[in-house]
Amino acid sequence: MSMRNPRKKPAPVAKTARPGSGRWRIVVVAVLFGLTWVALWARAGQVQLVQGEELAEKARRQHVMGSFERGERGDILDRNGRSLARSVRFNSVYVRPGEVENLDAMIRHLAEVLRQPVGELRQKLVRSRDFVWVARQIDDRAAAVLAERKFKGVYLTPEFGRLYPNNHLAGQVLGFAGVDDNGLEGVERSMDSVLAGGRADFLVQRDASGNRLYLDDQGREVNIRGRDVVLTLDAHIQDLAETALARSVEHFNGRAGVCVVVDVASGEILALAHYPFFNPNVYRRQNADLWRNRAAMDIFEPGSTFKPFLVAAALQEKKITPQSRYYCENGRWKLGRHTIRDDIHAYEWLTVDEIMRYSSNIGSAKIGLELGAKRYASYLSRLGFGERPGLALPGASKGLMRAPEKWREMDIAAISFGQGIGVTVLQMARAFLCLANDGVTRELKLVKSPIVSESEPGERVFDEDVARAVRRMMVDVVHKDGTGVRARIDGLVVGGKTGTAQKPLPEGGYGRNYISSFVGFYPGDKPKYLIMALVDDPSRAFYGSTVALPVVHDVALGALAYACELPGQDNAPVELAALAVPSNEVSARVVREAQPVPEGKVPDLRGLPLRKAVEILVRQGVVPLVEGNGAVVAGQSPTPGTAWPKAAQPFTLRLKGHAES
Description:
This protein is of the alpha+beta class. It has three domains: 66-223, Penicillin-binding protein 2a (Domain 2), CATH 3.90.1310.10; 235-562, DD-peptidase/beta-lactamase superfamily (Beta-lactamase), CATH 3.40.710.10; 586-661, 2-Layer Sandwich (Trypsin Inhibitor V, Chain A). It contains 21 helices and 23 strands. The strands form seven sheets. Strands 2, 3, 4, 5, 10 and 17 form a six-stranded mixed β-sheet that branches. Helix 12 packs across helix 17 and helix 13 (361-371) packs across helix 15 (409-416). The relative contact order is 0.08. Residues 215-219, 571-594 and 657-661 have low confidence and may be disordered.
């Protein structure tokens, strides 16, 4: 029988939950979770639907920025691929004022680095809130300082500036480009649509510190470089023409000069030289008058160089023959109230050939009066007078030619010997090209590539036999006792025509200032080169045969030597031919051979064939200046045995037909 412990408490009985209490807790939790979820969705909806565009724009401004890059301007090259103008990379500075945090500090820093007045900078930056150019094409030192000291809102961007590596060579033809890399003058302006580089706009990402992260090349895959332009100019012949022209203008104290060299077979301009020179690298520091392309823009009265067109027109109209004779009034002929003179000589009867050879104004006037105004004007118009030459040169002039209905008797006479009409050098070159091309017009060309427009077939103005007859008369001007005898080159037929024209006065009439000119065909019977030179207002002498003819002669010698086409020049190396020296047949009286070149001293070149002397100098890195005609060195400067001259000093060889005794 068991015993019970009276002190032991009975075990507690577990309480049972009230029905429905656990379900209530679950509902509360679910409601709270649901409310939270709804709040999150509401906020997300507000952010995305209501504030989406605003916030996205803020994010773009913070992490993505727009940038741009300007394309490089195309190069300008000569016909042989030599660089005449090219682009060089610079850095430029711009500011986005809205991003600047410490404006005063930034302005002081920029003013110090860029050497600009503080007040000027502040005015620029306060005026705009988007984009401000602060400095263009800064130097590398300033760019490095700005890149190292980073201010928010200050940016460097690459740009291209123009460089003309040959300085003044063909400066008036090339023109120049401005700070925005847009062409402002010359070929740079007329071919700007081809040369100009494009602009690429692209986006770049930034980190939290504002550093650019170029994670892609969006926008950069576009080719934004401008296209190259190839000119017909030959840099070497251009240099020959500029050197010869400068020598003549300076020697005769002329105001200015122009020389043009044309390849007859193609009409391509090989050289278009001007003096005084113009250096487009420093165009801001040079007088704007130097920018002007005188060959295309300046109008002048041509004088006697106009007479070949008169004779060609009269021959074509069968009004004359080369043997037709005219009485030249012993040098003075009164026509109405005016007196026409032959200044150099007084002549009686002259044939047409002699009228051309001796450049008789009276004989020319009588031919012109016989031809008549309408016929003469018709031929001049067909030769291109009164219209622009159609080259890639801005501002080219049409010249001045009145309607033939307004020509009086004296007008016809004056225009017959090149007065009373205004022309440009390029118009004259184009007209003479017709005579050189056997009477068919041919357009002058300055741009070789890209082809601007298809060449139109030329118009036959003169019969072939007429053009050749006029060229024969021009040959007589040089090879007989005419006004152009100084244009002769040994072993070569040369044709030419001199011109000496009085300059008209603003108040009317003519003064004592002149324009001297000469036109030459090389060779004269089958022209390869057409060369014309003009010197404005020479003072020490004024006849074309004295002032302008030597320019054409020297350029012709250089061009023919360069092309290895001088008589007796048997395919000499281009390096030697490029020295622009005559290479005629060496006289049998050459008495000695070349001696070894003494170490560090100038050798004795006297008595050597010119070709041999040039070879010796070229090996020493010296390009000589050649004076005179002939094939043998008669003298030299510096003298034998002296030290080699510095690079800036000329080495001169003086020539004669044989060595001096």
